[in-house]
């Protein structure tokens, strides 16, 4: 009888040693810290980082446990709150769940509602939260209705309030734009005008190589009080859920809207998209040209002319 008890105690002692050596926490008194899984990292990359940062003792054991925990899935990129005081099961369980901090990216040229759609999908926002995000800056000033959220990759807590997400995007824009504020002033441009023009460029230019020339043409049109005639503004005014940038139709040019740059000369009331630095730089370094008209041929090459007659000739030459 005593031999059996001794054997059981010995077995428990052995199990405790094995647990502590391989499955137990590395540091029972450690606090929680942020652990980053970058986009594109493999489970092996993650296990190497966990080992080097002192969260686990055995990479092989972690690799085996995480595969079973993920059930064929992958560790999602983002930030996880981990601690060296976690045992192996708690750690793998945490990494198998959605991260607390999420990478969120949107490109130049998106309008606010597009970003809102992606935010709502990423963070499971309710319609009320989505609406709050869309309107948080619009309600502040018409100048902030669009164009003041910098296109970038952000690191956002999964429970972040919509208003704070907007604040993060806007703060990044202000930081990125700040170095160009003096340049805009020297060019005699208000920052709101720069943002509006840059937002038009993001949607209108076929590529970065065209931006400077198109910016010069738009500025020429403004100087002679000629309507800008930007198709992207027609798309903006007609955009709706499921199709934020519909293909413009000839009839759209007759629709009464302050964003219809075929009917109204001057700039639209506010930006139509979120511009990147490339478009902002193009506005501030617009190409000097006498052109007032331009078009893109079937290969995406731009052709411009100072006269409408020249534009007609270009249409016949490059588009027919």
Q: What strand line-up does the widest sheet have? A: 1-2
Q: How would you spell out the order of helices and strands?
A: HEHHEHEHHEHHHHHHEEH
Q: Could you name the ranges where pLDDT drops below 50 across 5 or more consecutive residues?
A: 10-16
Largest beta-sheet characterization: 2 strands, antiparallel
Summarize the structure.
It contains 13 helices and six strands.
Question: Can you describe what's shown?
Answer:
The chain has 320 residues and is mostly helical. The chain has three domains: 2-99, 2-Layer Sandwich (Dna Ligase, domain 1); 110-177, no CATH class; 189-318, no CATH class. It contains 13 helices and six strands. The strands form three sheets. Strands 1-2 form a two-stranded antiparallel ribbon. Strands 3-4 form a two-stranded antiparallel ribbon. Strands 5-6 form a two-stranded antiparallel sheet. It is elongated.
Question: What key phrases describe this protein's structure?
Answer:
single chain, mainly alpha, Dna Ligase, domain 1, two-stranded antiparallel sheet, 13 helices
